[in-house]
Design goal:
single chain; 250 residues; alpha/beta; 2-enoyl-CoA Hydratase, Chain A, domain 1; 10 strands; globular
């Protein structure tokens, strides 16, 4: 696989949304936009009862923001628009009236941790270590922070945000509440997700809708909050500190 994509497959009332990028499933603006639109579209489909969100390939789940695109940002508006892409995906997941099951098969970094945190129920393999690396390049996990904090708590979120050089194990993430289950292999993970999704299809869709609203209570201001956070990141990405750091990735 060499071409980036976002695709969906609907079977037996279960929608599987898959994204892929050849650079370790990093997320440029176009993929973020397609992902947000697809989640919204599937969420409004009455034929869908459950959503599975996954990435392509068998290694990295998501490398976070596209460094190629970060390097090319030269003004605040473009920076804000880029980081708003992550805000839009998180808010699409938050507003979706269906349960979203996350399939995290491997390492996930930065914005990818934000995606995993916005899942309603996330399952992973033992290889799914997580890292918030944003402070390493002078930015900070501002946009994904609320979602990560909601799952890990302030203590867990601040720990991985400050220790931006370290991957924290899948078991650590499970103990903190990010992952519901951790499996030894991808094959075991896929079997468990398939069975779990089928079970969720037996639930009353109206009950699920109200449960999601209950679970996400207190996040009603996130449309505005995450937009403000995107502005902060959009400014910081232009700093001389960050520009110098990003030169190493060219």
């Amino acid at each position: 696989m060499t071409k980036a994509y976002v695709k969906k497959d609907i079977k037996d009332k279960i929608a599987t949304i898959e994204f892929f990028h050849p650079a370790h499933n990093s997320l440029p603006s176009d993929i973020l936009a397609k992902l947000a639109d697809t989640i919204t579209e599937v969420g409004q489909d009455d034929e869908v009862l459950v959503i599975i969100l996954k990435s392509g390939g068998d290694r990295t789940f998501c490398a976070g923001a596209s460094f190629k695109e970060l390097i090319s940002i030269n003004d605040e508006q473009t920076g804000e628009q880029f980081f708003s892409g992550f805000a839009n995906v998180i808010n699409a997941m938050r507003k979706c009236p269906k349960f979203i099951i996350g399939r995290v098969q491997g390492k996930t970094v930065g914005g990818g941790v934000g995606l995993a945190s916005a899942m309603d129920y996330c399952m992973a393999t033992q290889y799914a270590a997580i890292k918030l690396s944003e402070l390493n390049i002078g930015i900070g996990p501002f946009v994904v922070g609320p979602a990560v904090e909601r799952k890990l708590g302030v203590s867990g979120m601040s720990q991985i945000a400050i220790d931006a050089n370290t991957f924290y194990s899948a078991e650590w993430a499970k103990n903190k509440g990010l992952f519901a289950q951790v499996y030894e292999t991808t094959e075991e993970l896929d079997i468990a997700i398939s069975e779990f999704a089928k079970n969720l299809c037996e639930y009353n869709p109206e009950a699920v809708k109200h449960m999601k609203q209950m679970f996400w209570r207190g996040t009603e201001d996130w449309d505005e909050l995450l937009k403000e956070r995107a502005k902060i990141s959009g400014k910081l990405v232009l700093s001389s500190f960050t520009k110098e750091k990003l030169k190493r990735f060219k």
